[in-house]
Design goal:
Number of domains: 2
Strand content: 15-25%
Oligomer: single chain
Number of strands: 29
CATH topology of the largest domain: Glycosyltransferase
CATH architecture of the largest domain: Alpha/alpha barrel
Length: 612
């Protein structure tokens, strides 16, 4: 097995296409109002009258694929007009036609790089910031970096476009920051960045946008075009919401406490994003928000435009997710100062989690019974799968609780807290001893989803939790192999064969009595729609990884390789043509039923490539 950190040493972080010979030039379009530029890596267009992009696209693999122009070119009032001058690969904009000693803005383009500079003297009028606004409908781009205040990012940082590629952004002035905002609760959802212009305090600023590929590269996949979707999209799982300063479902969506462990899983294998910036930094910054009291979806007290988290209880997977993430950060970075400073907060999460084992049977419990027919259509269940009636003894959340205690035991040892370490180990050992006999269903030969307060097992052949039990070692050996074989056998029996769509979370329909969301649009009495057996890339990583771990490689590849074709084609993101539904969830025949438009959880599956 390849280690998390080992991959970073073999990673491909090279800025592509920066050759200086035969550099394309800016050209004046036929209408003489727009300057255009194109190389194998960039396609750009600027207004002649002012420094405003009208086309902005990249292909970090150098394949000249520019079918999408993600710009949102809103009408702008009171724009300052400039006088422009073109020379080869450079466009300069001046405040006056006669005085061209200092440019307000200058754009120099090379094969895979844009250099944008701005100059200002005391005599010159104030220069307008350079706004670049993108439509989320066209592309769910994100900026990634260390927050430097409200809607501000430090340089260096990234501007990442799923399915297209990545710009690494640099600035010559260490005091300058990048404006970054995003909003989906408007008529036209957007992501916006803005470059600060030169002024009296910063008379000359140079920005650089460098096209890069950020993904691990192995000899086995080197030069293989089937893995281009892996290369373009490897960091898709990291989307930073600037308004809450935390990683989220996408840059303008909710943060979910119960998904942070997915980002932590990916962060350990992610190459350095820029000098002094790693994915683990993004993880730590989000953890700091939670440790500082931030509430997210899955936690009592969280509110959003849709109402927030409708439950009297935190979801059973929220605390384990946060603990796993914090421990993974410490174990990967060896940042013991951060660990010591925040141990008390992490331990509080663990104490709350373990106290949920009210009957001392080794299994943590959720506050709602999970009994069939007990759901009112509003209250949320125990975990991520928030339209399915997981309650009471939730098999999924207990997997994460087991992993959380195992990792926290290791961190406690590093901090010299031996008693705590023993307590966490004892809890995880007891959980493991009781897990299989508690949830295994002899009739189906797989693990049930939950055992309700009335003692009933609720089993719909859940692919994700059975795979996760194997992945995290709660079930091992012949028991593990038997469970995975039973899942694959059932998949064939029910006729699920198109792995380009990902995997369904469950292989049998969940009846209305066990469904929390009483709306057919979200799967109520609608098998194959959304979480009621809908196909998605979310959580497929664990199934593929479990199969690889059991040396069932042919089965693993049969799922992974078709999905890679979909990642390459952008089939898990954006709207379906002629529909308001989005591609993050589909029926077994490919009909769209998603709503996020871009759900980062889909992209953990790319990590399975490292075991291909």
């Amino acid at each position: 097995m390849i280690s998390r950190r080992g991959f970073i040493q073999k990673s491909s972080l090279t800025g592509l296409g920066l050759g200086w010979q035969g550099i394309p030039q800016w050209l004046l379009a036929e209408n003489e109002d727009i300057f255009s530029y194109q190389s194998d890596f960039l396609k750009l267009a600027l207004l002649k009258s002012r420094p405003q992009f009208t086309f902005f696209s990249l292909d970090s693999l150098g394949g000249a694929q520019f079918k999408t122009n993600p710009l949102f070119n809103e009408e702008r009032e009171n724009n300052v007009n400039y006088f422009s001058s073109v020379k080869g690969n450079s466009i300069s904009y001046f405040a006056t036609e006669t005085d061209q000693r200092e440019h307000a803005w200058r754009f120099q383009c090379y094969t895979g790089k844009i250099v944008i500079s701005t100059e200002c003297s005391l005599k010159q009028e104030q220069i307008v910031p350079l706004d670049i606004c993108f439509s989320q409908v066209m592309n769910h781009c994100t900026a990634l970096g260390k927050m430097a205040g409200e809607k501000r990012l430090q340089f260096p940082c990234l501007l990442h476009f799923p399915g297209m590629g990545t710009f690494r952004l640099h600035c010559s002035d260490p005091a300058v920051t990048l404006f970054y905002d995003a909003d989906r609760n408007v008529k036209d959802p957007f992501v916006k960045v803005a470059l600060q212009p030169a002024d009296a305090d910063h008379p000359a600023i140079i920005y650089q946008f460098e096209s890069v590929v950020i993904s691990p590269e192995t000899e086995k996949i080197k030069g293989d075009a089937r893995f281009d979707g892996f290369r373009r999209n490897f960091i898709n799982i990291f989307q930073l919401n600037p308004r809450i300063r935390a990683l989220a479902n996408n840059s303008a969506s909710d943060a979910c406490a119960f998904t942070l462990f997915l980002y932590a899983e990916m962060a350990g294998y992610t190459p350095e994003l820029a000098k002094g910036l790693t994915a683990l930094d993004l993880l730590r910054n989000s953890l700091d928000q939670y440790l500082g009291g931030m509430k997210a979806y899955g936690q009592v007290g969280y509110h959003n435009a849709g109402g927030g988290w409708h439950s009297k209880f935190d979801s059973s997977d929220s605390a384990p997710s946060l603990i796993i993430s914090a421990c993974q950060y410490v174990l990967d970075t060896k940042d013991m100062d951060w660990a010591a400073k925040n141990y008390a907060g992490i331990r509080d999460w663990a104490a709350k989690m373990m106290s949920a084992d009210h009957n001392n049977d080794g299994i943590i419990e959720y506050g709602y019974s999970g009994n069939s027919g007990s759901w009112d259509g509003s209250a949320r269940p125990a975990n991520w799968w928030d339209t399915i009636g997981f309650g009471h003894d939730d098999a999924y959340s207990n997997i994460l609780a087991y992993q959380a205690c195992r990792l926290l035991s290791r961190v406690a040892v590093l901090l010299g807290k031996g008693k705590d370490s023993n307590d966490f180990t004892a809890f995880s050992d007891k959980l493991k001893d009781n897990y299989y006999p508690h949830f295994y269903n002899r009739q189906t030969e797989v693990l049930a989803g939950w055992k309700s307060a009335d003692g009933q097992l609720h089993d719909y052949y859940f692919t994700f939790l059975n795979s996760m039990a194997v992945y995290y070692g709660l079930v091992e050996g012949e028991q593990a192999k038997s469970i995975m074989q039973s899942l694959l056998k059932k998949m064939k029996e029910v006729g699920y064969t198109d792995f380009r769509l990902g995997l369904p979370g469950n292989l049998l329909p969940i009846p209305k009595e066990d469904y929390t969301e009483h709306n057919k649009r979200y799967g109520y009495e609608s098998f194959g729609v959304y979480e009621n057996g809908g196909a998605t890339a979310c959580y497929t990583y664990f199934t593929i990884k479990a199969l690889y771990r059991l040396n069932m490689r042919e089965d693993a590849d049969s799922i992974l390789l078709p999905m890679l074709e979909s990642f390459k084609n952008g089939d898990f993101e954006g709207q379906c043509p002629g529909s308001k539904m989005t591609k993050d969830w589909k029926t077994w025949t490919g009909e769209c039923w998603g709503y996020e438009g871009f759900l980062v959880d889909n992209y953990l599956a790319l990590l399975a490539v490292l075991d291909h």
